Amino acid sequence: LPLLLLVPMTSTRKFRCDDLFRFNNVNLDVLTETAEGKGENWHGHVTAVTVAPEFRRLGLAKNLMDYLENSSWGFMLRYDGYFVDLFVRVSNTPAIGMYEKIGYSVYRRVIGYYSGDDDGEDAFDMRKALSRDKDKKSIIPLPYPVMPDSLMD
């Protein structure tokens, strides 16, 4: 008998406002803050990129990041941002590799960033310089790790 391989079908469509409720309500509570920085710290931030396990390794996260960059770069460039950053678990090597392929690099290690976990795993703060940062100063790696409470310095 032939072996039948079932592969999940995926498609993309325009995002609708009510889709937000199906993903995450992190930005719907009264305690959420937005920190955009000043001067050379003026930047965009990727809060989360999540793909369900059964749809991983299909290029969806890269497509989401491409879409984000293509739609938000204009916004960040219009407001003259220096870089875009994101945080990723140091153990998440597939995500780190994907981010590196699209131009992000590790800027610093944040000790115990995921403190809600049993092990308080560290995070990498990964950055991608924008065109305003001609000397790419925003992505020069720090030679030492930092603690979460010093992230806004």
From TrEMBL:
Lineage: superkingdom: Eukaryota
Pfam families linked to this entry: Acetyltransf_1
A molecular function (GO) term: protein-N-terminal amino-acid acetyltransferase activity
Domain annotation N-acetyltransferase: ranges: 1-131
Gene3D superfamilies in the record: 3.40.630.30
Keyword Disulfide bond carried by entry: no
InterPro entries: Acyl_CoA_acyltransferase, GNAT_dom, NatB_acetyltransferase_subunit
Protein name stated in the entry: N-acetyltransferase domain-containing protein
